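User: Hey, my collaborator sent me this sequence without any context and asked if I could get a structure. I don't really work with proteins. Can you help?
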Amino acid sequence: MTELESEGHTVMIVHQDSEYLGLISVMDVARAESKKTLSALKDMGIKRMIMLTGDHQKVADAIAKSIGITDPMGNLLPEDKVRAIEQLKKEEGRVAMVGDGVNDAPAMAKSTVGIAMGAAGSDVALETADIALMADKLDNLPFAIGLSRKAKRIIKQNLVISLGMVAILVPLTIMGTIAIGPAVVGHEGSTLIVVLNALRLLNYK
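Assistant: No problem. I've predicted the 3D structure and written it out in structure-token form, which is a compact way to encode the shape of the chain:
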């Protein structure tokens, strides 16, 4: 019984009258895709991943060990999760939190980016989150992060293209170096380039 509890199991003793018949052991298990997802996140440069849970610390330790998380924090109430997120923000600057329950919502609201598991998530968690993974597949998380990073890069590229073209065309037009017609064509051409550049996101996998 002690060994099972140390491995994160919740153990129930079955007995009838004064006779002990045996033990029933139950345990929460991690999602099947958890380990693969965490590995993918590490490959993307996300080095520190922490588990915040209201479950017993032994349960948190066992699950964390099975999926490769080195810093599990158990026995947390919703307000404890909020304090943990606030501390992490002081240490790291930016913190993303993935959750699906009512107890996760306050901490998600405090995080830099809150990510809710859509299909299994509570209404409160979905309303609080900045991102909702509607397919309820944890392995969509690396995809969402990768897509966000690429979108950010493309936005910066498009700003450089559009503002750069304006910065070139306006002075040249004022000085009379080029006529209005070619300037308009150049501006509209840069707009087309911006649109085509943004469409590259459709091919992201």
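In plain terms: The chain has a mean pLDDT of 87. You can pass these tokens on to your collaborator as they are.
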